[in-house]
């Protein structure tokens, strides 16, 4: 991808994030309109659904507040300023060139935030990340802790950077890589601008309000066992991403294709049996 194409793609991703709230609320309003068209004698049947849609609106606005935090550190991205404060993507399918699938990717990222950086994702992370971590630990188990910083690990497809962060916490020098700006923007915010101060129980009736909350499943209306599953609130992040070991190990994230981003390190095939 040449520089001009990459810049256009980056701006498209930013517009997608900015369009999330407007797109989602417009879709919600359409559903409310359908409910209002239900005959009066049947309104009682959809009363609970109407309340559920109102609850969804609050969750969507909370997600939008989090997205606003993600986009706030524009100084890190020189071309972010080309999207002005009024470019909120209201006309998702119009002149701004966005498609509905662009905004749907933002909704997918919200779920990934829960998987990688909330307590709700503990089990899934243990099932997917721990086997890789165990193999690495077994392979380098005899290495003195003070020398782990000399072991360099490259993690392609790093998503929101939780796996490379976990490896860096063990003392290795790690570089994560991902091609998606959707991932890189959120990972940048979580790694550099948060410190894990959200309370543990966000869904308790008397729980305090955390600084960073997302409702990752608010848009999931199929295969929902209970209404509360759809409105599960998660605190982000569940740990302090900036609290890395002071052993001299380095941790970083890099964007781009794996074949272009992979540093000229000596590759060791230790994960072939995982």
- Give the oligomer, counting copies of the same chain as homo and different chains as hetero: single chain
- Summarize the amount of helix as a percent range: 40-55%
Low-confidence stretches: 78-95, 205-210, 267-274
| Class inferred from helices and paired strands | mainly alpha
> Quick one: biggest sheet?
3 strands, parallel
Shape: elongated
Radius of gyration: 21 Å
Cα-to-Cα separation, first versus last residue: 32 Å
Strand order, main sheet: write it out. 1-2-5
What is the β-strand count?
5
Strand content: 5-15%
Discrete helix count: 9
Number of domains: 1
Q: What do the pLDDT scores average to?
A: 83
Give the SSE string: HHHHHEHEHEHEEH
Secondary-structure map with pairings?
Blueprint: H1 3-36, H2 47-71, H3 100-117, H4 122-128, H5 130-139, E1 152-155, H6 162-169, E2 173-178, H7 181-193, E3 213-214, H8 227-230, E4 234-235, E5 251-255, H9 258-261
Parallel strand pairs: 1-2, 2-5
Antiparallel strand pairs: 3-4
